[in-house]
Amino acid sequence: MEEQPVQRSSYRLLLTLLRKLYIALKLFIERGHSDYAAQLSFSTILAIVPIFALILAIGRGFGLANYIENSVKDWLNSQPEVANFIIHFSNAYLEHARTGLFIGIGILFMLGSIISLIYNIEQVFDSIWQVKSKRSLRRIVSDYLSMIFVVPIIIIVLSGLSIIANTTNAELQQFIFLGPISQVLVQFLPFFAQMMIFLGLFIVMPNTHVKVVHALFPAALASLLMLMLQWAYVHSQIFLTSYNAIYGSLAALPLFMLWMHLSWYILLFCTELCYMSQNLDNYDYMIKPSEISEHTRRHIALLVITQIINRFKTGEKAPSPVELKQQTHIPIRLINDALYRLQGAQLIVEANLLDDNEQRFLPSQALKRLPIGQIIEQLDTACADKRKDKRMQVLATLDPQTEAMLHEVRQEALQKLNQSHDF
């Protein structure tokens, strides 16, 4: 009798996991991540030498330069030519950066390449998480510089831990019980190290609050898939002997680019999975804002701003998108679309609460200045895509007299709305 609840719980857990994977894969295909993967692959290839040069420079300060080089060779053991290429150019980069005018230009180019990569990753992750708001200039400077100097230190620490683990493992091999256990743990060390890196990537890069519990499984899956990709690359070398014979040492570059492209596919899918894991309950309906009429989108925006204003009038806490979804029973994608339109019309602003990581929204103007007619007028005026503004397309084909008459009728209707109802 006790096994049935356990079996049912396991069955529900499996169904939930399969549902997350299915919806994440569906969104991954629908959103066309091939362009994102190509963009990030190109940015990564441009920034990989400056990134490693920065890590190597910091590592030399700790006396760990040789260990870092060996770690890179271990990490790219499937592509030794690429590892040697990166190490050689990084050392040359640092040597040239020490002398002459190049020191200023080199540092600027290095930081610019890394910042460009971080910015592109954030843009793609924000697109996946449907985050419309951008980091302020102050946050960009502080957050990006923190990443640039903290991440290399973390990588150096992980390299040091790997050295300690291998040394300890060699010493424990003389023990009957501890030897095999330590051997297994050392074998799993690359998996856990990559998992921690991907976990930090999934949590820090989107400009929104990502819960750790929802990023754990995607990070583990990303680490596993990356190791499988590396294993497949190593074992596919036997089929690429003719390719290597034709292109020689140049064969490493296109193969590395292919590996990089597939790696970003893996990371973007796992980012979708992370997003879906945190927002699964809000995806009861897979409807897109573009699939509903402009009339319905306007009504949803009016309903959303009504909820925001009512919460503000009663002194309650500003609502989050999830709370608005629960109050209105409208799918979360349409709620986010309405919030984006209302922000574009300058009708609401995001509340900055120090004790809360959730996005919350407040009316941007005094309540007396927000009658329903004014809201409709601002929503129509701030149409995000002018090509889809049917009213403007119609007016462009009318003669001036008819256009003036329609404008007068519209203004009269808006005035009546303003007089009949305000918040």
UniProtKB/TrEMBL annotation:
Subcellular location: Cell membrane
Superkingdom of origin: Bacteria
Family annotation (InterPro entries): Virul_fac_BrkB (IPR017039)
Major localization class: membrane
Keywords, alphabetical: Cell membrane, Membrane, Transmembrane, Transmembrane helix
UniProt membrane topology term: Multi-pass membrane protein
Annotated Pfam families: Virul_fac_BrkB (PF03631)
Signal sequence coordinates: none
This protein's GO CC annotations: plasma membrane
Transmembrane portions of the chain: 36-58, 101-121, 141-164, 184-205, 212-233, 245-268
NCBIfam families linked: yihY_not_rbn
Protein name: Membrane protein
